[in-house]
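Submission sheet (multi-component)
Chains listed below:
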Amino acid sequence: MPLTTAMPTQPNLPSTHWRAGMPSARKRYSYAFLDEGAKREIRRKLLKAVAIPGCQVSFGSREMPIARGWGTGGLQLTLSLIGPDDVLKVIDQGSDDSVNAVNIKKFVRNVTGVPLTTDTRVATLIQTRHRIPEEPLHANQLLVFQVPIPEPLRLVEPSERKTRRMHAEADYSRMWLYLYEDIVRFNEITVGARYPVMVNGRHLMDPSPIPRWDVARLNQSEALLLFCAGREKRIYAIPAHTDVEPLSFEDFAFRVENFHGHCCSRCGCAGSFLDEVIVDESGRRTFICSDTAYCEKMRRRGAAADAAQEENR
Amino acid sequence: MDEGMHRNQKNYRRLLDAMSCPGRIVRLEIPDGHASIGAALAVGQCLLDSEVSVCVIGNGDAPALQSTLAAVTHVRTAPLAKADFIFICAGQSLGGARLAWRGRSEAPEEGATLVYCHDFVRTGSSDHLRIRLSGPGIARQEGIVPEMSGIPLEEFRELLAVNADYPLGVDVFFVRPNGEVMGLARATRIQVR
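Outcome: structure written.
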Protein backbone atom coordinates (compact mmCIF):
# COMPACT_ATOMS: atom_id res chain seq x y z
CA MET A 1 0.00 0.00 0.00
CA PRO A 2 1.54 3.40 -0.90
CA LEU A 3 2.14 5.58 2.11
CA THR A 4 1.74 8.83 0.17
CA THR A 5 -1.65 9.54 -1.33
CA ALA A 6 -2.47 12.04 -4.02
CA MET A 7 -5.56 14.25 -3.98
CA PRO A 8 -8.44 11.98 -5.01
CA THR A 9 -10.71 13.00 -7.83
CA GLN A 10 -14.18 14.27 -6.88
CA PRO A 11 -16.58 11.29 -6.82
CA ASN A 12 -19.33 11.32 -9.43
CA LEU A 13 -22.28 12.61 -7.45
CA PRO A 14 -25.83 11.98 -8.63
CA SER A 15 -27.36 15.06 -10.26
CA THR A 16 -29.96 15.37 -7.47
CA HIS A 17 -27.23 15.73 -4.80
CA TRP A 18 -27.10 19.23 -3.31
CA ARG A 19 -23.40 19.48 -4.10
CA ALA A 20 -23.82 18.51 -7.73
CA GLY A 21 -22.54 21.29 -9.94
CA MET A 22 -20.78 23.11 -7.08
CA PRO A 23 -17.07 23.80 -7.47
CA SER A 24 -14.69 21.75 -5.26
CA ALA A 25 -13.72 22.97 -1.79
CA ARG A 26 -10.36 24.06 -3.23
CA LYS A 27 -12.19 26.48 -5.57
CA ARG A 28 -14.83 27.66 -3.09
CA TYR A 29 -12.30 28.80 -0.48
CA SER A 30 -9.07 30.74 -0.79
CA TYR A 31 -5.94 28.59 -0.88
CA ALA A 32 -5.42 27.04 2.57
CA PHE A 33 -8.75 28.46 3.79
CA LEU A 34 -7.35 31.48 5.67
CA ASP A 35 -7.31 34.85 3.93
CA GLU A 36 -3.90 36.30 3.10
CA GLY A 37 -4.13 38.94 5.86
CA ALA A 38 -4.69 36.29 8.51
CA LYS A 39 -1.77 34.23 7.19
CA ARG A 40 0.50 37.27 7.16
CA GLU A 41 -0.29 38.06 10.79
CA ILE A 42 0.39 34.50 11.90
CA ARG A 43 3.59 34.42 9.82
CA ARG A 44 4.85 37.65 11.37
CA LYS A 45 4.15 36.39 14.89
CA LEU A 46 5.76 33.06 14.14
CA LEU A 47 9.01 34.76 13.07
CA LYS A 48 9.08 36.58 16.42
CA ALA A 49 8.36 33.32 18.26
CA VAL A 50 11.31 31.67 16.50
CA ALA A 51 13.56 34.63 17.31
CA ILE A 52 12.74 34.35 21.05
CA PRO A 53 12.65 30.59 21.70
CA GLY A 54 10.03 29.57 24.26
CA CYS A 55 8.43 33.02 24.50
CA GLN A 56 4.66 33.10 24.05
CA VAL A 57 3.56 35.50 21.31
CA SER A 58 -0.10 36.51 21.16
CA PHE A 59 -1.97 36.47 17.86
CA GLY A 60 -5.48 36.97 16.55
CA SER A 61 -6.85 33.44 16.49
CA ARG A 62 -9.46 33.02 13.75
CA GLU A 63 -12.71 31.06 13.77
CA MET A 64 -12.11 27.71 12.13
CA PRO A 65 -14.54 25.07 10.89
CA ILE A 66 -13.70 22.94 13.94
CA ALA A 67 -14.40 23.78 17.57
CA ARG A 68 -11.84 25.55 19.74
CA GLY A 69 -9.89 22.95 21.68
CA TRP A 70 -9.86 20.51 18.77
CA GLY A 71 -6.65 21.71 17.20
CA THR A 72 -7.58 25.14 15.82
CA GLY A 73 -4.18 26.55 16.81
CA GLY A 74 -2.20 23.83 15.10
CA LEU A 75 -4.51 24.01 12.11
CA GLN A 76 -4.03 27.77 11.72
CA LEU A 77 -0.26 27.37 11.83
CA THR A 78 -0.38 24.52 9.33
CA LEU A 79 -2.58 26.52 6.95
CA SER A 80 -0.32 29.57 7.22
CA LEU A 81 2.77 27.54 6.40
CA ILE A 82 1.59 24.99 3.88
CA GLY A 83 2.27 25.24 0.15
CA PRO A 84 1.94 23.09 -2.97
CA ASP A 85 5.39 21.51 -2.41
CA ASP A 86 4.52 20.14 1.03
CA VAL A 87 3.63 16.63 2.09
CA LEU A 88 1.40 16.58 5.16
CA LYS A 89 1.16 14.14 8.04
CA VAL A 90 -1.27 14.59 10.92
CA ILE A 91 -1.20 12.49 14.07
CA ASP A 92 -3.29 12.45 17.21
CA GLN A 93 -1.57 10.86 20.21
CA GLY A 94 0.69 9.03 17.76
CA SER A 95 -2.13 7.68 15.63
CA ASP A 96 -2.61 8.59 11.97
CA ASP A 97 -6.13 7.22 11.96
CA SER A 98 -7.91 8.83 14.91
CA VAL A 99 -10.98 10.98 14.23
CA ASN A 100 -9.23 14.29 14.98
CA ALA A 101 -6.24 13.51 12.78
CA VAL A 102 -8.32 12.20 9.88
CA ASN A 103 -10.68 15.19 9.91
CA ILE A 104 -7.84 17.71 9.98
CA LYS A 105 -6.04 15.86 7.19
CA LYS A 106 -9.15 15.76 5.00
CA PHE A 107 -9.85 19.42 5.59
CA VAL A 108 -6.31 20.57 4.75
CA ARG A 109 -6.25 18.36 1.65
CA ASN A 110 -9.59 19.76 0.48
CA VAL A 111 -8.45 23.37 0.75
CA THR A 112 -4.89 22.92 -0.54
CA GLY A 113 -4.66 19.71 -2.57
CA VAL A 114 -1.37 18.71 -0.90
CA PRO A 115 -0.49 15.01 -0.76
CA LEU A 116 -0.88 13.20 2.57
CA THR A 117 1.39 10.64 4.10
CA THR A 118 1.72 8.48 7.18
CA ASP A 119 5.48 8.13 6.71
CA THR A 120 7.29 10.47 9.11
CA ARG A 121 10.44 10.56 6.96
CA VAL A 122 8.53 11.64 3.84
CA ALA A 123 6.44 14.40 5.44
CA THR A 124 7.65 17.99 5.23
CA LEU A 125 4.98 19.31 7.58
CA ILE A 126 3.69 17.29 10.53
CA GLN A 127 0.82 18.42 12.72
CA THR A 128 0.61 16.57 15.98
CA ARG A 129 -1.48 16.34 19.09
CA HIS A 130 0.37 15.16 22.19
CA ARG A 131 3.21 13.14 20.64
CA ILE A 132 6.48 13.48 18.75
CA PRO A 133 6.89 10.81 16.06
CA GLU A 134 9.28 8.03 17.09
CA GLU A 135 11.40 8.25 13.95
CA PRO A 136 14.07 10.97 14.11
CA LEU A 137 13.04 14.20 12.40
CA HIS A 138 15.31 15.90 9.89
CA ALA A 139 16.26 19.50 9.24
CA ASN A 140 13.73 20.18 6.47
CA GLN A 141 10.71 19.25 8.55
CA LEU A 142 8.33 21.39 10.55
CA LEU A 143 6.53 19.88 13.52
CA VAL A 144 3.38 21.77 14.54
CA PHE A 145 1.98 20.99 17.99
CA GLN A 146 -1.63 21.53 19.00
CA VAL A 147 -1.59 23.15 22.43
CA PRO A 148 -4.52 23.32 24.86
CA ILE A 149 -2.87 25.41 27.63
CA PRO A 150 0.27 27.33 26.61
CA GLU A 151 1.04 28.85 30.01
CA PRO A 152 3.28 26.61 32.16
CA LEU A 153 2.78 28.91 35.15
CA ARG A 154 -0.99 28.44 35.12
CA LEU A 155 -0.47 25.63 37.66
CA VAL A 156 0.74 28.19 40.18
CA GLU A 157 -0.76 31.52 39.06
CA PRO A 158 -4.23 32.10 37.58
CA SER A 159 -3.66 35.72 36.51
CA GLU A 160 -2.39 36.23 32.96
CA ARG A 161 -1.03 39.67 33.84
CA LYS A 162 1.02 38.22 36.68
CA THR A 163 2.38 35.32 34.63
CA ARG A 164 3.48 37.80 31.94
CA ARG A 165 5.41 39.71 34.61
CA MET A 166 6.90 36.49 35.96
CA HIS A 167 8.16 35.59 32.47
CA ALA A 168 9.51 39.12 32.02
CA GLU A 169 11.51 38.81 35.23
CA ALA A 170 12.36 35.13 34.67
CA ASP A 171 10.84 34.60 38.11
CA TYR A 172 10.04 30.90 38.13
CA SER A 173 10.52 30.34 41.85
CA ARG A 174 6.87 29.36 42.38
CA MET A 175 7.16 26.65 39.74
CA TRP A 176 10.28 25.28 41.41
CA LEU A 177 8.45 25.37 44.74
CA TYR A 178 5.49 23.50 43.24
CA LEU A 179 7.78 20.71 42.05
CA TYR A 180 9.63 20.64 45.38
CA GLU A 181 6.35 20.32 47.33
CA ASP A 182 5.34 17.49 45.02
CA ILE A 183 8.52 15.62 45.93
CA VAL A 184 7.98 16.27 49.66
CA ARG A 185 4.38 15.02 49.50
CA PHE A 186 4.61 12.13 47.07
CA ASN A 187 8.34 11.46 46.70
CA GLU A 188 7.74 12.03 43.00
CA ILE A 189 7.05 14.90 40.61
CA THR A 190 3.47 14.12 39.69
CA VAL A 191 3.38 16.22 36.52
CA GLY A 192 3.06 13.62 33.78
CA ALA A 193 2.25 15.28 30.48
CA ARG A 194 2.90 19.05 30.11
CA TYR A 195 6.17 18.76 32.03
CA PRO A 196 7.64 22.30 32.22
CA VAL A 197 10.88 22.89 30.35
CA MET A 198 13.43 25.70 30.25
CA VAL A 199 14.18 26.83 26.71
CA ASN A 200 17.53 28.40 25.81
CA GLY A 201 18.15 28.94 29.52
CA ARG A 202 15.63 31.80 29.64
CA HIS A 203 11.95 31.01 29.08
CA LEU A 204 9.86 28.46 30.94
CA MET A 205 7.67 26.69 28.41
CA ASP A 206 4.77 24.27 28.33
CA PRO A 207 5.69 21.58 25.78
CA SER A 208 1.97 20.73 25.27
CA PRO A 209 0.65 17.48 26.81
CA ILE A 210 3.34 15.23 25.34
CA PRO A 211 4.52 12.41 27.62
CA ARG A 212 7.80 12.81 29.49
CA TRP A 213 9.20 10.29 27.01
CA ASP A 214 9.01 13.01 24.33
CA VAL A 215 10.11 15.91 26.54
CA ALA A 216 13.71 14.73 26.46
CA ARG A 217 13.55 14.68 22.65
CA LEU A 218 12.85 18.42 22.41
CA ASN A 219 16.47 19.13 23.32
CA GLN A 220 18.75 19.88 20.34
CA SER A 221 16.09 18.71 17.88
CA GLU A 222 16.98 18.65 14.19
CA ALA A 223 13.59 20.05 13.13
CA LEU A 224 11.90 23.35 13.86
CA LEU A 225 9.22 22.82 16.54
CA LEU A 226 6.19 25.12 16.46
CA PHE A 227 3.43 25.37 19.05
CA CYS A 228 0.07 27.07 18.72
CA ALA A 229 -2.92 27.39 21.05
CA GLY A 230 -5.99 28.57 19.13
CA ARG A 231 -8.27 29.04 22.13
CA GLU A 232 -5.60 30.84 24.17
CA LYS A 233 -4.28 32.72 21.12
CA ARG A 234 -0.59 32.00 21.67
CA ILE A 235 2.26 30.92 19.40
CA TYR A 236 5.71 29.80 20.54
CA ALA A 237 8.58 27.91 19.00
CA ILE A 238 11.82 26.03 19.51
CA PRO A 239 14.35 26.36 16.66
CA ALA A 240 16.54 23.39 15.81
CA HIS A 241 19.62 22.84 17.98
CA THR A 242 18.21 24.70 20.97
CA ASP A 243 18.84 23.71 24.57
CA VAL A 244 15.62 22.47 26.18
CA GLU A 245 15.91 21.22 29.74
CA PRO A 246 13.10 19.76 31.82
CA LEU A 247 13.02 21.29 35.30
CA SER A 248 14.77 18.98 37.73
CA PHE A 249 16.79 19.10 40.93
CA GLU A 250 20.41 18.04 41.43
CA ASP A 251 19.30 15.29 43.79
CA PHE A 252 16.05 14.48 41.99
CA ALA A 253 16.63 13.94 38.30
CA PHE A 254 14.00 14.11 35.57
CA ARG A 255 12.70 10.64 34.70
CA VAL A 256 10.75 9.36 31.72
CA GLU A 257 8.01 6.72 31.78
CA ASN A 258 9.13 3.19 32.58
CA PHE A 259 7.43 0.26 30.84
CA HIS A 260 9.08 -2.32 33.09
CA GLY A 261 10.44 -4.45 30.27
CA HIS A 262 7.20 -4.59 28.25
CA CYS A 263 7.44 -4.39 24.49
CA CYS A 264 4.95 -3.81 21.69
CA SER A 265 2.75 -6.86 21.13
CA ARG A 266 2.41 -6.05 17.39
CA CYS A 267 5.96 -5.26 16.27
CA GLY A 268 8.00 -6.40 19.25
CA CYS A 269 9.70 -3.02 19.63
CA ALA A 270 11.00 -2.30 23.13
CA GLY A 271 12.37 1.17 22.46
CA SER A 272 9.22 3.16 21.70
CA PHE A 273 6.53 4.84 23.80
CA LEU A 274 3.83 2.26 24.53
CA ASP A 275 0.08 2.50 25.08
CA GLU A 276 -1.45 0.05 27.54
CA VAL A 277 -4.71 -1.34 26.13
CA ILE A 278 -7.35 -3.74 27.45
CA VAL A 279 -7.82 -6.41 24.82
CA ASP A 280 -10.82 -8.44 26.03
CA GLU A 281 -13.63 -8.56 28.57
CA SER A 282 -11.51 -10.41 31.09
CA GLY A 283 -9.44 -7.26 31.43
CA ARG A 284 -6.32 -8.75 29.88
CA ARG A 285 -3.87 -5.98 29.03
CA THR A 286 -1.26 -5.62 26.40
CA PHE A 287 1.12 -2.92 25.18
CA ILE A 288 1.33 -1.50 21.68
CA CYS A 289 3.37 1.33 20.13
CA SER A 290 1.66 4.70 20.48
CA ASP A 291 3.09 5.78 17.08
CA THR A 292 1.03 3.66 14.68
CA ALA A 293 3.03 4.46 11.52
CA TYR A 294 6.29 3.58 13.26
CA CYS A 295 4.77 0.37 14.59
CA GLU A 296 3.60 -0.62 11.10
CA LYS A 297 7.04 0.11 9.66
CA MET A 298 8.75 -1.96 12.36
CA ARG A 299 6.27 -4.80 11.85
CA ARG A 300 6.96 -4.85 8.09
CA ARG A 301 10.67 -4.68 8.68
CA GLY A 302 10.39 -7.61 11.10
CA ALA A 303 8.28 -9.58 8.61
CA ALA A 304 10.80 -8.88 5.82
CA ALA A 305 13.69 -10.00 8.04
CA ASP A 306 11.80 -13.20 8.93
CA ALA A 307 11.13 -13.90 5.26
CA ALA A 308 14.81 -13.36 4.38
CA GLN A 309 15.86 -15.71 7.17
CA GLU A 310 13.40 -18.33 5.92
CA GLU A 311 14.80 -18.01 2.39
CA ASN A 312 18.39 -18.46 3.62
CA ARG A 313 17.42 -21.74 5.25
CA MET B 1 -3.06 36.21 -7.94
CA ASP B 2 -2.33 32.57 -7.14
CA GLU B 3 1.19 33.01 -8.46
CA GLY B 4 1.91 35.90 -6.09
CA MET B 5 0.29 34.05 -3.20
CA HIS B 6 2.39 30.93 -3.73
CA ARG B 7 5.54 33.01 -4.18
CA ASN B 8 4.82 34.72 -0.84
CA GLN B 9 4.32 31.33 0.82
CA LYS B 10 7.60 29.98 -0.56
CA ASN B 11 9.47 33.14 0.34
CA TYR B 12 8.02 33.08 3.83
CA ARG B 13 9.22 29.52 4.37
CA ARG B 14 12.70 30.67 3.33
CA LEU B 15 12.55 33.63 5.71
CA LEU B 16 11.48 31.19 8.44
CA ASP B 17 14.48 29.01 7.55
CA ALA B 18 16.73 32.07 7.70
CA MET B 19 15.43 33.14 11.11
CA SER B 20 15.54 29.63 12.57
CA CYS B 21 19.06 28.95 11.27
CA PRO B 22 20.88 32.28 11.82
CA GLY B 23 23.97 32.89 9.75
CA ARG B 24 22.85 30.71 6.86
CA ILE B 25 21.97 32.13 3.43
CA VAL B 26 18.64 31.30 1.75
CA ARG B 27 17.43 32.62 -1.58
CA LEU B 28 14.12 34.38 -2.24
CA GLU B 29 12.10 34.40 -5.45
CA ILE B 30 12.06 38.01 -6.65
CA PRO B 31 8.97 39.55 -8.30
CA ASP B 32 9.55 40.76 -11.85
CA GLY B 33 10.12 44.37 -12.81
CA HIS B 34 11.52 45.93 -9.67
CA ALA B 35 15.28 45.86 -10.40
CA SER B 36 17.42 46.62 -7.36
CA ILE B 37 14.57 46.76 -4.80
CA GLY B 38 13.03 43.45 -5.90
CA ALA B 39 14.46 41.39 -3.04
CA ALA B 40 13.42 43.92 -0.39
CA LEU B 41 9.97 44.05 -1.97
CA ALA B 42 9.73 40.25 -1.79
CA VAL B 43 10.30 40.45 1.99
CA GLY B 44 7.74 43.26 2.22
CA GLN B 45 5.10 41.33 0.28
CA CYS B 46 5.52 38.39 2.65
CA LEU B 47 5.21 40.29 5.88
CA LEU B 48 3.72 43.77 5.46
CA ASP B 49 0.15 45.02 5.33
CA SER B 50 -1.93 47.79 6.84
CA GLU B 51 -1.71 46.20 10.32
CA VAL B 52 1.97 47.11 10.72
CA SER B 53 4.18 50.13 10.18
CA VAL B 54 7.42 50.61 8.31
CA CYS B 55 10.24 53.12 8.19
CA VAL B 56 12.71 53.16 5.29
CA ILE B 57 16.06 54.82 5.93
CA GLY B 58 19.23 55.19 3.91
CA ASN B 59 19.96 56.67 0.55
CA GLY B 60 19.71 55.70 -3.09
CA ASP B 61 16.79 53.28 -3.29
CA ALA B 62 15.09 54.36 -0.04
CA PRO B 63 12.42 56.70 -1.53
CA ALA B 64 11.58 54.25 -4.31
CA LEU B 65 11.35 51.36 -1.86
CA GLN B 66 9.18 53.31 0.56
CA SER B 67 6.68 54.34 -2.12
CA THR B 68 6.60 50.87 -3.69
CA LEU B 69 6.06 49.15 -0.33
CA ALA B 70 3.23 51.56 0.50
CA ALA B 71 1.59 51.08 -2.90
CA VAL B 72 1.91 47.29 -3.02
CA THR B 73 1.27 46.31 0.62
CA HIS B 74 -0.67 49.33 2.00
CA VAL B 75 1.72 49.38 4.95
CA ARG B 76 1.65 52.47 7.19
CA THR B 77 4.75 54.59 7.60
CA ALA B 78 6.01 55.51 11.06
CA PRO B 79 8.99 57.22 12.67
CA LEU B 80 12.09 55.09 13.20
CA ALA B 81 11.52 54.64 16.94
CA LYS B 82 7.96 53.37 16.49
CA ALA B 83 8.13 51.30 13.30
CA ASP B 84 7.50 47.55 13.36
CA PHE B 85 9.76 47.07 10.32
CA ILE B 86 12.78 49.16 9.44
CA PHE B 87 14.22 48.81 5.95
CA ILE B 88 17.80 50.09 5.79
CA CYS B 89 18.94 50.85 2.24
CA ALA B 90 22.62 50.97 3.16
CA GLY B 91 25.30 48.69 4.51
CA GLN B 92 25.09 50.35 7.90
CA SER B 93 22.23 51.75 9.95
CA LEU B 94 24.50 54.60 11.17
CA GLY B 95 22.93 54.52 14.61
CA GLY B 96 19.44 53.75 13.32
CA ALA B 97 19.44 50.29 14.91
CA ARG B 98 19.91 51.82 18.36
CA LEU B 99 16.76 53.89 17.92
CA ALA B 100 14.58 50.93 16.92
CA TRP B 101 11.82 49.78 19.27
CA ARG B 102 13.03 46.79 21.29
CA GLY B 103 9.74 45.76 22.84
CA ARG B 104 8.49 45.75 26.43
CA SER B 105 9.59 43.29 29.08
CA GLU B 106 6.08 41.76 29.13
CA ALA B 107 5.95 41.69 25.31
CA PRO B 108 9.47 41.43 23.90
CA GLU B 109 8.04 40.24 20.59
CA GLU B 110 7.00 43.83 19.88
CA GLY B 111 10.65 44.61 19.07
CA ALA B 112 11.24 45.80 15.51
CA THR B 113 12.48 43.74 12.58
CA LEU B 114 15.40 45.30 10.70
CA VAL B 115 15.82 44.54 7.01
CA TYR B 116 19.20 45.59 5.59
CA CYS B 117 18.82 45.91 1.81
CA HIS B 118 22.29 46.28 0.45
CA ASP B 119 24.66 44.66 -2.01
CA PHE B 120 27.17 43.61 0.63
CA VAL B 121 29.25 41.84 -2.04
CA ARG B 122 30.41 45.19 -3.37
CA THR B 123 31.93 46.25 -0.06
CA GLY B 124 34.33 43.32 -0.40
CA SER B 125 34.93 43.20 3.33
CA SER B 126 36.08 39.99 5.01
CA ASP B 127 34.99 41.20 8.44
CA HIS B 128 32.57 38.30 8.68
CA LEU B 129 35.54 35.97 9.30
CA ARG B 130 36.02 37.68 12.66
CA ILE B 131 32.44 36.95 13.71
CA ARG B 132 31.20 33.85 15.54
CA LEU B 133 27.49 33.14 15.78
CA SER B 134 26.14 30.58 18.23
CA GLY B 135 22.92 29.77 20.05
CA PRO B 136 19.47 28.51 18.95
CA GLY B 137 19.38 27.23 15.37
CA ILE B 138 23.13 26.73 15.15
CA ALA B 139 24.31 23.14 15.39
CA ARG B 140 27.93 23.66 16.36
CA GLN B 141 28.50 24.59 19.99
CA GLU B 142 31.67 26.49 19.09
CA GLY B 143 29.69 28.65 16.67
CA ILE B 144 29.81 29.40 12.96
CA VAL B 145 31.05 32.18 10.71
CA PRO B 146 28.12 33.98 9.02
CA GLU B 147 27.79 32.85 5.41
CA MET B 148 27.14 36.37 4.12
CA SER B 149 30.27 38.44 3.67
CA GLY B 150 30.62 42.20 3.43
CA ILE B 151 28.56 43.18 6.49
CA PRO B 152 30.62 45.78 8.40
CA LEU B 153 31.99 44.72 11.77
CA GLU B 154 30.56 47.87 13.34
CA GLU B 155 27.08 46.71 12.42
CA PHE B 156 27.54 43.44 14.30
CA ARG B 157 28.82 45.46 17.28
CA GLU B 158 25.76 47.69 16.99
CA LEU B 159 23.41 44.69 17.01
CA LEU B 160 25.30 43.20 19.94
CA ALA B 161 24.61 46.37 21.92
CA VAL B 162 20.96 46.62 20.82
CA ASN B 163 20.25 43.01 21.83
CA ALA B 164 22.20 43.10 25.08
CA ASP B 165 19.02 43.05 27.21
CA TYR B 166 17.65 39.80 25.79
CA PRO B 167 14.74 39.04 25.32
CA LEU B 168 14.33 42.72 24.47
CA GLY B 169 15.86 43.50 21.10
CA VAL B 170 15.51 43.46 17.34
CA ASP B 171 15.61 40.71 14.74
CA VAL B 172 17.45 41.18 11.48
CA PHE B 173 17.39 40.10 7.87
CA PHE B 174 20.31 40.98 5.58
CA VAL B 175 18.99 41.02 2.01
CA ARG B 176 21.08 41.22 -1.15
CA PRO B 177 19.55 42.45 -4.43
CA ASN B 178 20.03 38.98 -5.94
CA GLY B 179 17.56 37.55 -3.40
CA GLU B 180 20.04 36.10 -0.91
CA VAL B 181 18.88 36.52 2.69
CA MET B 182 20.59 35.86 6.01
CA GLY B 183 18.69 36.05 9.31
CA LEU B 184 19.94 37.01 12.74
CA ALA B 185 17.57 36.35 15.61
CA ARG B 186 17.95 38.32 18.82
CA ALA B 187 18.65 35.02 20.62
CA THR B 188 21.76 34.53 18.48
CA ARG B 189 24.96 35.11 20.41
CA ILE B 190 27.44 37.26 18.49
CA GLN B 191 31.15 37.19 19.26
CA VAL B 192 33.42 39.72 17.58
CA ARG B 193 37.08 38.67 17.57
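Remark: Strands of chain B lie at 25-27, 53-58, 76-77, 85-89, 113-117, 131-134, 171-175, 180-184, 189-192.
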